[in-house]
Design a protein that fits this description.
heterodimer, A: 2 domains, 4 strands, globular, B: 221 residues, Cyclin A, domain 1, SH3 type barrels, 2 domains, 16% strand
Chain lengths: 204, 221
């Protein structure tokens, strides 16, 4: 991809190919079209970065939950009702004033589906996967994120079945906000590490 | 394998170019490709490790010219063919021709929510004690198998530190090739950026991988 992002839009040959494959699989009784519909529905409407935002907002609001999240992220996240595929073994990593965390999968597209949903195209594409481990500052700059020069950066390459969630730092001036309002400040990118949480009053 | 998937540290792919307000799918076929890949996986005839190996086995020119859902579909066709569910003739014709193999299970729409929320855990008991402890210095192996592995090239033959000990997990290098789950202890191993990328590297960078025990050797103090 990289120079040629728009090839995702050259649909016809792939649309035909995918349609043909689905036709074969349904005719042979190997997949049920309604099951495919239900899987799509799950990730379009039920499982997405709103889940992760709730986890982060709870961690910001409740120190006991934050400690649980740090020690046993899978269980802490499951207590909010988020579990399952590509989130079976969760780890939460917490940004601090000294260290910023960034998640990548250099070898494929591993991503914490249960809390962030399906990954964006850039996360799965060669420019991000190649450079996140060698030039994270350059990558972050392309997201408009300039970290202080003395901020340490820790990159987590998801090479096994552990799935990582970044807990961004809570923005200043948010003491008065409840969990629901806090969750609105937690962007998907802030939970990958390619962004920060929004400031109170920032438009999304 | 040292295939097209092993991207860490490679150059020349251009800027990341995140897409503002990116839609979840860029075409209808991407939805079907995602759902079909997940549904076919639940038949239970191949593992996620075998799926990954099939994807990285695409010819490099094909891999790099394909979007990720294209990669999934190309790999799914091969998996279905290799396991006897679909023939090359059928893929060309776009319709069922032969009866083919019967699957262990077919995912029903009513089962989707339960299957997805349960997931597919891959932690497994390992009887042996872990060979390494938090704080141990280790050197990663310098092996270049033509088969599946999850130790990226940039992290091979490098000195690192064990940061976490996670317990036993299915070992993809064996499981991808029908050898069973062969679980091993899994560790998070962290490297100083300069160990990986040389002295020009940002001094504040550290990078970790999750590494199975057989990827690691003790490295003294």
């Amino acid at each position: 991809m990289g120079h040629d992002h728009d090839h995702d839009n050259h649909l016809d040959p792939m649309a035909a190919r995918v349609k043909a494959l689905e036709t074969i699989l349904v005719e042979k009784g190997l997949v049920e079209a309604a099951a495919i519909d239900a899987i799509i529905e799950t990730y379009e409407h039920k499982v997405g970065p709103g889940n992760g935002a709730r986890v982060v907002a709870r961690a910001w609001s409740d120190p006991d939950f934050a400690a649980w999240l740090a020690n046993d992220a899978t269980a802490a996240i499951a207590s909010l009702g988020f579990s399952g595929r590509q989130g079976e073994h969760m780890r939460a990593v917490f940004n601090t004033p000294q260290q910023h965390h960034l998640i990548v999968c250099t070898l494929c597209s591993c991503y914490p589906w249960s809390v962030l949903g399906l990954p964006p195209v850039w996360y799965k594409s060669p420019p991000y996967r190649s450079r996140a481990v060698i030039d994270p500052r350059g990558v972050l700059a392309e997201f408009g994120l300039e970290l202080p020069a003395d901020m340490q950066i820790r990159v987590w390459d998801s090479t096994a079945e552990l799935r990582y969630l970044v807990v961004p730092m809570r923005p200043a001036g948010t003491d008065h906000l409840d969990e629901q309002a806090l969750a609105e400040l937690v962007t998907r990118d802030s939970m990958i590490g390619t962004g920060l949480a929004l400031s109170a009053g920032d438009p999304e | 394998m040292n295939g097209p998937q092993d991207l860490g540290g490679q150059m020349g792919f251009g800027p990341v170019a995140p897409e503002p307000d990116e839609p979840l799918f860029h075409a209808e076929w991407e939805k079907r490709a995602m759902g079909m890949t997940v549904a076919a996986g639940t038949m239970g005839h191949w593992t996620i490790d075998e799926s990954r190996f099939q994807r990285e086995s695409l010819a490099p020119a094909d891999y790099y010219a394909s979007s990720y859902y294209e990669i999934w579909i190309k790999a799914l066709e091969r998996l279905l063919e290799r396991h006897g569910f679909v023939s090359a003739e059928e893929l060309v014709a776009g319709r069922a021709i032969n009866p083919g193999r019967k699957p262990k299970r077919v995912l029903k729409a009513g089962e989707v929510a339960g299957v997805l929320s349960k997931g597919f855990a891959c932690d497994r008991p390992v009887e042996a004690q872990p060979r390494f402890a938090v704080g141990d210095k280790v050197r990663t192996s310098n092996r270049h198998p033509e088969t599946h592995t999850r130790l990226p090239r940039y992290a091979r033959d490098k000195l690192g530190t064990v940061e976490a000990v996670h317990g036993g997990y299915v070992f993809p290098d064996v499981n991808a090739h029908g050898g069973g789950e062969a679980p091993q202890h899994l560790y998070t191993v962290v490297f100083d950026g300069r160990t990986l990328w040389g002295e020009d590297c940002d001094a504040g960078l550290s990078v970790s991988v999750d590494a199975w025990e057989s990827y690691l050797e003790p490295a003294g103090q």
